[in-house]
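ping. complex inputs:
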Amino acid sequence: MSRYKDYQLIEKLSNVVGNEVTLRGWVYNQRGKGKLQFIILRDGTGIAQCVVFRDNVTEEVFESAKRITQESSLSVTGVVRADERAPGGFEIDVTDLKIIQIAQDYPIAKKEHGDAFLMKHRHLWLRSSRQHAILRVRAAVIKAIRDFFDGSGFTLVDSPILTPNACEGTSTLFETKYFDLGSAYLSQSGQLYAEAGAFALGRVYTFGPTFRAELSSTRKHLTEFWMVEPEMAFFDLEDDMDLAEDFVEYIVQYVLKTCRKELEILERDTTKLENIKRPFYRMSYTDAVDWLVKNDIPIIKKIDNQDVEIRPFPWGEDFGTVQEEAFMEQFDKPCIIHHYPTEVKAFYMKRDESNPKVVCALDMLGPEKAGELIGGSQREDNFDLLLERIKAENLPEEAFEWYLDLRRYGSVPHSGFGLGVERTVKWITGAKHIRECIPMPRMIDRIYP
Amino acid sequence: MSRYKDYQLIEKLSNVVGNEVTLRGWVYNQRGKGKLQFIILRDGTGIAQCVVFRDNVTEEVFESAKRITQESSLSVTGVVRADERAPGGFEIDVTDLKIIQIAQDYPIAKKEHGDAFLMKHRHLWLRSSRQHAILRVRAAVIKAIRDFFDGSGFTLVDSPILTPNACEGTSTLFETKYFDLGSAYLSQSGQLYAEAGAFALGRVYTFGPTFRAELSSTRKHLTEFWMVEPEMAFFDLEDDMDLAEDFVEYIVQYVLKTCRKELEILERDTTKLENIKRPFYRMSYTDAVDWLVKNDIPIIKKIDNQDVEIRPFPWGEDFGTVQEEAFMEQFDKPCIIHHYPTEVKAFYMKRDESNPKVVCALDMLGPEKAGELIGGSQREDNFDLLLERIKAENLPEEAFEWYLDLRRYGSVPHSGFGLGVERTVKWITGAKHIRECIPMPRMIDRIYP
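pong. complex structure:
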């Protein structure tokens, strides 16, 4: 037995009721009057109420208990009592207490702080119970993602971050010097590499950080975010949509099963999440436009630096937040919109054989203003059509030689999609801002800490 | 039931013996004579031998079977027979065959190719059975890593890739412009952020790609590699070593359990891996130097551009490949070397209280020339000593303000380590080169595909 396994964690107090144990942690809260001091101790796994009664401890220990401040570090020894009324469900009758360090003037007090202040102190803000809960849900979402694919015959195939070419143009890319080989760009998507993986291993997924250097982004956008991208040989758009539904249902139901406590802290209405079960809704882009027209939802365009509303919504335009949120008002589950106009989608998407004006693309929009959770498509598997698209978009052909090889040597129908982790976490937790959904958010105006 | 779940995968043929099924995949190999054509089909999940007998199929199908080439894509319909002698264990008596695409002149033939050629065709090289096997072991190693920590009360806390400051100096960093905030650097380690996570959540791990822009690296080094870094509040060096041993034992035993077939393809001597069980070996740096001296292992230094051997090995110098490999010859399991000289280790490591000339550091070296699998330490938790080290190394103090905050507000003893995924995969698989241990390797002379 390793020594570290003997450390008493608060989440395991139910195993040691009646015993004397030593806890280690930080002061989350405290109050006292007369002969009693109450300390709420947090150790990362939970909180426990430690009661220091003057008659039970030495004078030195009692004085220590009075001296401690928020976020001071302690070790506390005492007898465990189950007590439903106590925060965390257990109370420690303290027999000894050692101060490890007194925290002087912890910057995050109980009062409200502004966003900028909290972001600057993100390394400390992480200690709050709301941030704990969001990060635990994030970890559960990521575990669900991996379990889903690992359990369905997919092989993880990590794609590189440093790439020689741009998937969708170079204007929104972070660039870095790469030895004598010129520039490298930080990956916006692992998809093209996942396609190579799928032709080798059948069903694969890539999962890692991706980057967008878009100046046009608002402060609500992250410049660095995590994305999972499955890619499947022999899947057509229909299969892709089926998988996307199974996948999102699995994630939501997994979080519900494993993060009850966290969702409660976050005051999330879980009935809305219970409802996220297949089948979801599906509608073609063309039918979605009809709905927008019928419901008088305009498109908003900048003309002479002014926002102008254009009605009726014209077929061929991409949807923005206004259209997506209006459209999703009618649904209590995600809706997949499919068969988008070729013009608004990426070069690698397969054109519909019966109507080349649209591509075999899908976007899954979430309810409750969750926005786009998933974007995906069947891929163009015809060499000539793909090359034509690469040329039409003025992409550097030689950089895509290897990608074209996939259509030279045993091309097959294949499909995939990408799901953004932070957006999914924001939806499931009901967090106000996406920046709370990643431990250290990176935005156009923030790279510290 | 989703449609995609009905696709017949080769790995699931044992469920459908006697049935007629349709497989989809690529031609891995073929041969024929007279009325018989044998096609080895791969679909990413396995291989199956498809037998085309002229009397059982139309003339058109038989002509198609003769036309196919390596890596052509097909769908094959036929009746499944279990046959131990067949590659993969099953034979398909073909009734129908459809060519999806004929691959013309697939570049990777059965003959030997040079490294540069294979690396340039990495997107196709991935289709070979050896590369399959290595990537499957890689995926298993990563799953073992996550399962180990998720199952031991750790919370995943992703650290950022874009960072404002350098963990260990800026000379070996990839740099990119970050909007109006100056430069950002690609992370070499998530450790500092993991420390903030540990103070919030107790036991955490960060897992993602890390970057080294070291020009001095050989072509055998990767510039982009994956690293997992656990960080634990209240762990001292002893606990850290215990955890590191448990962890590596878990990974190796998990791969043995789940990747028998892959290890066989790789012709790995699994008895050596069976043996990787706790306890491992441990030795202080000082005792290891004594061993080097006793065994006459020199240090090799460049003097006037010449390699000069210096004997006896001087206390205070870091170990290189020569010393590590000589030292590890005596061991059949990993060995942890601990308490390294302060001078050769990073600023954040805790000095030994009884001897400040050494720090509470650990390196785990693997047997069979595996090299350093793990590097870790107890962290300096004293504010003044940490600040002194930051100043002594001329690191930008303001960039480390947030890191110093962790020692201002409830500092506690804490420890952690990092394990490199590709080195671990190289050791376990016995792969010749580290570049085979990641799907798309990045080296100083390679960023394509």
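The mean pLDDT of chain B is 95.
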